[in-house]
Amino acid sequence: MPADNKEEAFDLIYEENCGRIYNVLLSMTRDEAVAKDAFQETFVKVWHKMDTYDAEKGSVYNWIKTIARNTAVDMFRSGLYRSLPEFKPLGEEYLDLVTYDREYTGIIKVTDRLKPEHRIIIEMMYYRGRTLVEIANFLQVPLGTIKTRLTEARKVLRQILKKEH
């Protein structure tokens, strides 16, 4: 494949799949830094393996998703992402980190209880900063449906939080 065609094909593949692949990796790793590393490594592999893609075996998205999952698994097996380096912060910084970690973990546990179609909207809007229009376009769902699901998700979150506090 000529270099120009390969670059154009890669750009198209990347644009059409980057959001969904990142979300797959983030849901697998539950860590933005690890997900970003795996994401970058995945698309480097996609670039190098583009000539091996076989449309008869499945969609481009499924091919990339397989590469992404294998990349994330390999990263965890390597041991680089199993533990963080020893870190002993002092004073208020430490308390802020502990408080943030507890709050973030609690938020993840609560959002994990939502239906998948509600959780993805909450995650995209609040964790990724996406607008409702962007979410509707990404999920290929009407904007009105996104608004309804967001309202339902917020209602469920309020109920969960009332029960726990």
TrEMBL record:
> What positions belong to coiled-coil segments?
none
List this protein's GO terms for biological process.
DNA-templated transcription initiation
Question: Which Pfam family is one of this chain's hits?
Answer: Sigma70_r2
What SUPFAM superfamilies does this protein map onto? Sigma2 domain of RNA polymerase sigma factors, Sigma3 and sigma4 domains of RNA polymerase sigma factors
Signal peptide span:
none
The RNA polymerase sigma-70 region domain, residue ranges: 13-78, 112-159
Q: Report the domain of life of the source organism.
A: Bacteria
Name of the molecule in the record: RNA polymerase sigma-70 factor, ECF subfamily
Q: Which UniProt keywords apply?
A: DNA-binding, Sigma factor, Transcription, Transcription regulation
One GO molecular-function entry: sigma factor activity
Q: Which family is this protein grouped under? A: Belongs to the sigma-70 factor family. ECF subfamily.
